[in-house]
Each structure stands twice: as C-alpha cells, then as structure tokens.
Amino acid sequence: MYDMTIELKAGTGKRLYEQIYEHIRQEIREGRLLAGERLPSARSLAEYLQVSRSTVDTAYEQLLSEGYIESRPCRGYFVCHIEDLFQMEKARGPREQKAVSGASGTAGKHLPGSRVVPGKNAPGTAALASPGEDRSLVCDFSPNEIEMSAFPFNVWMRITKNILSGSNSRLFSQGEPQGEPELRRTICKYLHASRGVECDPEQIIIGAGNDYLLLLLEKILGSPVRIAMENPTYKRAYQILRSFAEIAAVDMDKNGMLADRLEQENADVAYVMPSHQFPTGIVMPIGRRAELLNWANAAENRYLIEDDYDSEFRYRGKPIPSLQASDRHGKVIYIGTFSKAIAPAIRISYMVLPYALLERYQRDCYFYSSTVSRIDQRILNEFIQNGHFERHLNKMRKIYRARHELLLEELQAFKGMFRISGENAGLHLLLTARGKISEEDLLQKAAKQGVRVYGMSDYHIDAAALPRFYRETSTLLVGYGGLNEKQIQEGTGLLKKAWL
Q1: For site-directed labelling of 185, which of 153, 207, 440, 494 has its Cα 20 to 30 A away?
Q2: Which domains does the chain have, with CATH numbers?
C-alpha cells in the first residue's frame, strides 16, 4: 500500500478535500502512484491526516468520477491503468501550439477524406403531443427545460439600460467577426478558472448558438470529412453535422466512445461530450480521454470536437475538467454555451479553435460577420465581470440540487423496476428497465396518466449500429430542470399509477 504523505495547508483558498484530491491526482499523473496500487482506506487516511472521513470520501469520489482510481468491492481503492497518460503531460501552451503549427506547415491544409434535446415538435422525439397540443398533459419531464423564474431580470435590465444610456454609437456599428475582444477575454478567464481550458482570447469565436458554430466548422475543416459521433447522441448536432459531413455512429461502453473504433471507421474528427454525455449521462474517465487524444495525435489532420454543454451543473465533488485541459498538441475544438447556465434566448455560444485551425478560419472565413450583436455581447460581458453570473450559477445549482434530490427520493419507489443512473450531474436522470418491457409500452402508460417522459431510442443515430445493451433494454430520460417541487411530486405520483 502506498505511503500517503500530504501536506494540508490552511489559508490557500482550497478546501481540504481539494488538496487531497489534487495531491493524489498529481501522484498518479507523474507516475509515483502506479496502476494497480492500493490507496489507504478513507477511514485510515482521515485518521492519518486528522480530517473528517467525509473530507477523504469526497476527494476519493472526485478521483473515481474522473477515472483515476477504481473501487473494488471489499478490497478498497486502486489506481486505474491509464494508457499513455504521460504523453498528455508534455506541456505545451496555446502559443507554443501556434509555433508548432506554423513550423509543421499544417496551415491551409484541408482534412482528407436539442441537449437542448430535439424540440417537442421535432422528428425523433417521444411520440406524445406538445403541451400546446395535448390538453391532457399534466407533467412534462423534459430534459431540455430550465428554470427561468429565478433569472435576474432586474439585473439584466439595469445593465442593458446603463449600456444603452451611454450614447455610445460604436455599439451600433459592425463588430469584429470573432466577437468583441472584451467578451473573449472574459470568456477566456472564465474557462480557465472553471474548466481548466488553456487558450488565448484570439482563439475564441463567439456565435449565436452552437448551430452556427458547428456550421462554421464546415468551412474550417474543409471537405470531404468523416465525423464520428457517439451513439446515442445529441440529435440536433447530428442533424447539423451530417448536412456537410459523412457521419460514423460509434458504439459506447460505460466509459464513453470506444476509441479503438475510430480507426476502423476511418474517421477524421470525433464529436464527444466527455464531461457529461447526452443523453446517457456518462462521465468519460481520464483513461478513455487519453485514448482519444492519442488517436488524434497519431495523424496530422485529426481533431476532437468537445461539446461541454452543461458542465456547470454537478452535484458531487468538483466539476470534471475539460478534455481540452489535457490537450497538449492542439487537437481539441472546444464548444460551450450560455444557454443552459443563463437562458436559451441569450443565444451566445463560443468555440475555442486550436491555432492550426484558427489560421484556416482567418484565411477562409474572415468575411463572415459576427452573428451576435455588440450590445448583447457587452451586456453579457458586464454580467459576468460584475459577478452576477457566478451568483446566478450558485443560485441555480442550489435550486437544481434540491429538485435533483427530491426526484431521486421520489424515484426510490421504482428501484425494483428500474436502475437509476446519471444522478451526479446535468438536469435529467435515466431509468433503465430491469425486466423486458418495451419503451413504447412505458411511454404509452405514462401518457395515459398525463405524463410525458422521453425514450432513449429517440437519440440513436443508427439502430443497426447500437450496442447490444441498448437494443435489449428500455431506458427513459426524466428531466427536472423546468419543474418545481410540487410538479415533481405530482408527476412521479402519476408515474406510480402508470407503472406500479
């Protein structure tokens, strides 16, 4: 067993569990803790460090979530085998990537070869009418709804008023194609602090929603291009990407996209959601992330698109670091949005391009105007800089955590019938039937009680390519972001009548 010597320091601004987590994580990444090595039990480490047992438990849970360690029943915690992890540690910052991309001559070469989930009226959604069409609908457990009553409307209006009262005529002129420099600097700082993203403001492109940014990639990546997508996946992204690229549906296991399938599929690009996969809720462990990065590093024109759509909402431990934070060779295209964290109508998303692709953008797409008004960008910038965004996030985390815990409690009645998963992050849970009952039957019984739930089959790209697990089981998505406590209790009560 490894001799754990950790120096805990007060006044650093980091909580004790964070210091324990970061120490063990660094020991693993630097090879001082080897694969298969056993860690001290939570109780013995807590006694040794003179901290509470819950502090060590939280640190171990974070390491488990990120895939650095595994729990073996009745034996304890052991270090995971992480293939080629140390290749990820050869640090190269964004500007060093720029120098490398310039030296390699990759600039200008083309590649060879609705989480907001589908809308209620979109093809491929659950076979139930929308609230406006079905007056018998009592409760909609939609995974795409968020709580808007808590939005700080007065703050947003005050910022808007102050900006517009400044008589700044520049705000009404055309801005920079990549977005306002001030907002890009603010987003850059935010991403580094919250997600570990390493980038410069010049790498960020601001656009009106992820749809625009994904379409922009058509011009940046060039054609033909073959993009691998997780199956099941976010169907809206699939519909957009297939409009210009050949799509390969790649199976998933409990750790996410199967990296070895990418070679078989002859993919150029892989679209992944490593921090919280939609719709399965899988958090990709560090080992699988290393495999994807090594696949991308193996060829000059391979890239990973990281969609980090709802990483702000995690209920146990710290947020999982982004895949881009481990990228040392400029292979990750990072995409995020403020739609979930603030409001869908804000329609401001951002994309971080590796320097090699930034050169292509500046050469081939310089004439595209920004799709977000300078006024909206200025409002958002002040909303973030003045601390309103952080306060709003903290408030929403508290609201969603309460709903998340209530829904988990209400769903305990179904534990004999379903396996509950996806409970550590996001705004929906998964119910996987333990017996052989069809998804359609479950949906219809719920609909008769006036309840809408969503079937996993709606998010499959290709049924023929589905892993056996998904073909033989029925899995439902149960969202809670747009429901208050009373609605959650009423809705689950009706589900009990429908299914029990």
Answers
A1: 153
A2: 16-81 (1.10.10.10), 89-113+153-386 (3.40.640.10), 139-150+390-499 (3.90.1150.10)
